[in-house]
Design goal:
Layout lengths: L4 H7 L6 H19 L10 H92 L3 H7 L3 H102 L3 E4 L32 H13 L14 H7 L3 E3 L7 E4 L6 E9 L2 E7 L13 E7 L4 E4 L2
Antiparallel strand pairs: 1-6, 2-7, 3-4, 3-7, 4-5, 5-6
Helix pairs in contact: 1-2, 3-5
């Protein structure tokens, strides 16, 4: 009693006054009251604390969803822009090939024009020669040509030559006429081809500028996109930490015990060799991320009963009771082996597989509960006993 020993001795003094009697009565009452009070206990989470934490997690989850949506929007935009860029590149390659072909055709046409002009020039020289021959022959009469010929045969040959020149002249004149008409067509085609080439080159410049603009836009968005991804990852990590704290608190409240690594085959879970390194790396056949509690329990249902409903990837444990009722399964507060236990605590809730029941205690196996058996790592397998009131139970048979 320490400092109260002296006052108590005074109370046992037979010579004390009435006032001292009153003092002793008060002191005795105080001692009696002090001894009846319970020892102070360490503060535990109240339901309001959990509600506050849940509200906080819901708010964080909402912001996380917003970040993820924004990140997805940026990803879709980036994919769309990349698709446009790829399309533009294909169009550019096609235009360059067309331009190259047109330039070759223009070069061919230029060569044809040059050859035609040369042929016209040669024909013009031949025409001049033929005309000169006719002019010379027209100056000499037929009698004079005959008289000047060495023989009649020579005269006949000369007359035939002049007749042939007449035919040649007519043919050359006609050919030149056709060549000049063809030359005009080719020159017009060359002008149109040049115009077409200039238009295609201008189109190519437009496409190149559009591509440069899209690339710049992609680079500008890339930093924001990556930041959104990082923010979402940070928010997810923070949310999971809060979730694990709530699971640990609930386990303590419901007297979890016997926590162990348990079955070395880890419940037969087919992704166990990927956990926890590849936690949430991809989704299982029910659209649930591997190494999560719901993916494990979905597998146990499938392994036990040959069927597990697909709920469209809506796999958070908190959603399972409503999904189960909608699918016609029984949801009960009474556990039985081979049922799935669902805790509604936290943003996601928690799903476990009921291995055994003993009185009001259930023995469960689970994934993604950071505890002593898992070295406080997420995405690992463990087993433990806990009071049945921690969960509500879904019967899949």
């Amino acid at each position: 009693m320490g400092g109260l020993e002296k006052p108590l001795r005074l109370c046992y003094d037979k010579n004390m006054k009435i006032k001292r009697n009153i003092f002793c009565l008060v002191l005795a009452s105080a001692l009696l009251l002090a001894n009846s009070l319970p020892a102070p206990k360490a503060r535990a989470y109240t339901q309001q604390d959990l509600n506050n934490i849940n509200s906080k997690i819901s708010e964080i989850r909402s912001r996380m969803k917003q970040y993820e949506d924004q990140a997805s929007a940026f990803a879709a935009e980036a994919n769309s822009i990349q698709g446009k860029i790829n399309s533009l590149r294909a169009q550019q390659d096609s235009l360059r090939a067309q331009i190259e072909l047109k330039e070759a055709e223009r070069e061919q046409l230029a060569a044809e024009i040059e050859a035609t002009e040369k042929r016209i020039e040669e024909n013009s020289e031949t025409i001049g020669y033929v005309i000169a021959q006719f002019y010379y022959s027209s100056e000499v009469s037929t009698i004079e040509r005959m008289a000047s010929s060495e023989s009649f045969s020579s005269y006949i040959d000369e007359e035939m030559r002049l007749s042939s020149l007449t035919d040649t002249l007519a043919g050359i004149v006609e050919e030149n006429k056709n060549l000049k008409a063809d030359l005009e067509v080719k020159k017009k085609n060359a002008e149109l081809m040049i115009q077409d080439l200039e238009g295609q080159k201008a189109r190519l410049v437009v496409l190149e500028n559009e591509q440069a603009s899209l690339l710049a836009q992609t680079r500008e968005n890339e930093a924001s996109y990556r930041q959104m991804q990082n923010d979402a990852a940070d928010q997810k990590a923070a949310l999971e930490e809060e979730q694990q704290k709530i699971l640990a608190d609930l386990a303590s409240r419901w007297h979890a015990s016997g926590i162990t690594a348990g079955d070395p085959n880890k419940g037969g879970y087919p992704y166990s060799n990927r956990c926890p390194q590849q936690k949430d790396a991809f989704a299982d056949q029910w659209g649930m991320y591997i190494c999560e509690c719901v993916s494990y329990t979905a597998w146990r249902v499938y392994a036990a009963y040959g069927y597990m409903p697909y709920w469209g990837g809506h796999g958070n444990a908190k959603q399972w009771p409503a999904n189960a009722r909608a699918a016609g399964y029984v949801v009960s507060s009474t556990p039985k082996p081979g049922s799935v236990g669902i805790s509604m605590g936290g943003a996601y809730g928690h799903a476990v597989w009921v291995e055994a029941v003993s009185g009001n205690r259930v023995y469960i196996s689970q994934y993604n509960s950071a505890n002593a058996a898992t070295g406080y790592r997420k995405g690992e397998y463990s087993e433990q006993w806990v009071d049945q009131g921690m969960y509500q139970y879904i019967y899949f048979r």
